[in-house]
């Protein structure tokens, strides 16, 4: 039965493998080039908070050289959804075409057929997610050294969240397809649902999974070291009591500052007790956030897969 399930899943699995192969061909040469540039330019010595002018120049040169590639890799966060949708397709197609009925008449129970179909799909999804995560993590290594792992594009491609994303897309398509029994609408609905869920988590939910920290410092004194490689959620001016202060441009305390320079403005703001405040998630929370988010997506995926299995077992005829 496992061999039959694999044969039914083979085409979609090979397509997923083809996608991974294309990514390998695209990312390995550029990853080698970027790693070479990182070491050749000695950027490992420019990782402190207060860096020299030459370091700033080197960092700007490095990012401008590879930012277009980094922007392209950021779009790879859609690949887990594509993997999940693709690998759920054989299950839905069998329900649409009615070939599951033939299998059930060949001394194969409904439960065994459903379990093998979904297990093969889940196994292929996990393997595809693992390869994608390892590839992108390796490619982004220089950027992680320079910027940390808390930026959205990096966070979404590393750690363990990719497994949760892929399984969620797979479970969503399987659940919708089990009820609808139409492959194309189920695949489209599943991918749109995956995309919407990712946007919701990235823009609203993630910053509420753990209570963010706050820190304030005098205007013009430079960011505190704790913000290095952190995820900055927001930054604003606050008064001495910690309440948001009106955004002064040329004035401070209602009076026009002579010269309107940043130094004069900083002195006036400091004299009035105005400080900069940041709300952030520190770099040390990368794995706790990853664990919670992966649990949410993988847990939802499990519920969706169990629903798809139950609905197919009880309602499919």
Verbal overview:
The chain is mainly alpha-helical and 317 residues long. The protein has two domains: 2-211 and 284-315, no CATH class; 213-281, no CATH class. 68% of the residues lie in helices and 8% in strands. The protein has eleven helices and five strands, in the order H-H-H-H-H-H-H-H-H-E-E-E-E-H-E-H. Strands 1-5-2 form a three-stranded antiparallel beta sheet. Strands 3-4 form a two-stranded antiparallel sheet. Strand 3 and strand 4 form a beta hairpin. Helix 1 runs parallel beside helix 5, helix 5 (110-139) packs antiparallel against helix 8 (161-180) and helix 8 packs parallel to helix 11. The longest helix has 39 residues, at 2-40. The radius of gyration is 25 Å and the shape is elongated. The chain starts with a helix and ends with a helix. The model has no long low-confidence stretch (mean pLDDT 87).
């Amino acid at each position: 039965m496992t061999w039959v399930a694999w044969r039914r899943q083979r085409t979609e699995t090979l397509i997923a493998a083809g996608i991974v192969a294309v990514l390998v061909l695209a990312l390995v040469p550029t990853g080698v080039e970027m790693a070479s540039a990182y070491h050749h330019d000695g950027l490992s010595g420019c990782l402190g908070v207060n860096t020299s002018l030459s370091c700033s120049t080197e960092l700007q040169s490095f990012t401008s050289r590879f930012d277009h590639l980094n922007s392209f890799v950021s779009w790879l966060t859609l690949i887990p959804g594509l993997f999940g949708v693709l690998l759920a397709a054989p299950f839905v197609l069998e329900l649409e075409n009615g070939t599951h009925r033939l299998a059930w008449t060949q001394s194969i129970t409904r439960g065994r057929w459903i379990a093998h179909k979904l297990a093969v799909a889940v196994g292929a999804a996990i393997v595809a997610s693992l390869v994608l995560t390892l590839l992108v993590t390796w490619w982004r290594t220089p950027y992680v050294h320079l910027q940390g792992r808390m930026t959205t594009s990096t966070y979404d491609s590393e750690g363990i969240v990719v497994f949760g994303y892929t399984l969620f897309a797979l479970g969503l398509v399987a659940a919708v397809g089990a009820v609808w029994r139409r492959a194309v609408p189920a695949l489209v609905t599943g991918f749109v649902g995956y995309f919407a869920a990712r946007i919701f988590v990235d823009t609203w939910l993630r910053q509420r999974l753990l209570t963010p920290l706050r820190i304030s410092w005098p205007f013009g004194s430079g960011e505190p070291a704790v913000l290095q490689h952190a995820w900055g959620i927001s930054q604003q001016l606050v008064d001495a009591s910690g309440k948001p202060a009106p955004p002064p441009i040329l004035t401070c305390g209602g009076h026009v500052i002579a010269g309107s320079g940043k130094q004069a403005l900083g002195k006036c703001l400091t004299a009035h007790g105005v400080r900069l405040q940041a709300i952030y998630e520190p770099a040390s929370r990368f794995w706790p956030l990853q664990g919670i988010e992966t649990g949410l997506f993988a847990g939802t995926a499990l519920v969706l897969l169990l629903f798809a299995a139950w609905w197919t077992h009880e309602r499919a005829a």
